[in-house]
Amino acid sequence: MRTRVLALLSVVALLLVVAVACGGGEPAAAPAEEAAPAEEAAPAEEAATEAPAEEAAKEAPAEEAASTAGAYGEMPADAIPYPPPPALELGNATIEKMPIDQIVTYKALDEYHEPEWVTALVDAGELPPVAERLPVEPKVVLKTGMPDGIGVYGDVWRDFSACPTAGWNNGAGVTSGWFGIESMSFNYQALVKTGPLYRADQDLEPFPNLAKSWEWSDDGLQLTMHLLEGAKWSDGEPFTADDV
Asked: What's the N-to-C CA distance of the chain in angstroms?
C-alpha cells in the first residue's frame, strides 16, 4: 500500500514538474513580445538618419531658385536647363520719337521713278504712266525718321518686325508683320494706322493712311474723314467713300 502511495506521489510530482516547465514557458515568451517595440523603435533611428536627407531636400529648392535667373528674366523653378540663348543683336540706335507730320506727309513730287521692268510694261501699253497710277498727293514717308536715309533705289529690302513671319506672311512668307518697313508702306491699307505709333511722340492720334485727315463734330458724335484723292485699287478702279 505504501509502495502505491509513493508511486502515486512520484507521478504527481513528475506532473507538477512538467506543468511548471510547460506553464513557465508562457511568461518567458513575454520578452519576445516586448521585443516588438524594439523593432518599432527602428523608424526613430531611420528618422534620425533621414533627418540630414530631409534637410538637404529643404536646401535643394534654394539651389534651384538660384538657378532660375535667365538671361532675359526669371524662369520657373522646374524649367528645363537649356543652353543660354544667343544675344539679340538689334543695333544700338535709339528711336527718336517725333510728331506724326514729321514722319509722313502728303504731297505731289516733281518726278517719280520706277523699275525698268515696269517702264517696259508702260511702253508696251499694259500699264498707264506712273504719274497716272498715283494719287494726286501721294503719301510720302519722310527720311527724318530714317537713321540711314532712304537707301539705294532698287537695293536689297532689309526688314525688321516684332511679329513672326509665320503669323503675318501677307507677302507669301517674305514680309515680317508689323513695325517694319511695310508698316509704313504697302502691307495693308487701312484708313488710319496705329502700328507705327512707336515712332510718334504721342499714342492717342493714329497715323493717317487712306484717310489724310479727319475732324469730329462739336458734339463728338460725327466723324468726317478726308480720303486720299486719286487712290486706286490694284485693277485701276478708283477708291472712293463707297468702298469704306
From this structure: 142
Which cell goes with 57? 531636400
Contact 67, 105 (CB under 8 A): no
* The overall pTM is greater than 0.70: no
pLDDT tens, residue by residue, 26-82:
444 444 445 444 455 445 455 444 555 555 445 544 444 454 676 656 777 777 776
H/E run at residue 15: helix 2-40
Strand partners, 157: none
Owning domain of residue 136: 100-243
Q: Is residue 109 part of a domain?
A: yes
pLDDT digits (tens, 9 = 90+) for 179-218: 555 555 555 688 998 878 888 999 889 999 999 999 999 9
* 233 falls within a domain: yes
Strands (E), 95-164: 104-106, 139-141
Q: How far is CA 201 from the centre of its chain?
A: 27
Centroid of chain to Cα 144: 33
Residue type, 151: G
- In three-state secondary structure terms, 73 is strand
Q: Please state the domain count of the chain.
A: 1
Higher pLDDT, 125 or 150: 125
DSSP class of residue 243? G
In a domain, 55, yes or no: no
Calpha distance 2→158 (Å, rounded): 134
Count the neighbouring beta carbons within 10 Å of the beta carbon of residue 122. 15
Q: What sign has the CA pseudo-torsion 108, 113, 114, 119? A: positive
Asked whether residue 47 is assigned to any structural domain, the reply reads: no
CA distance 50 to 22: 45
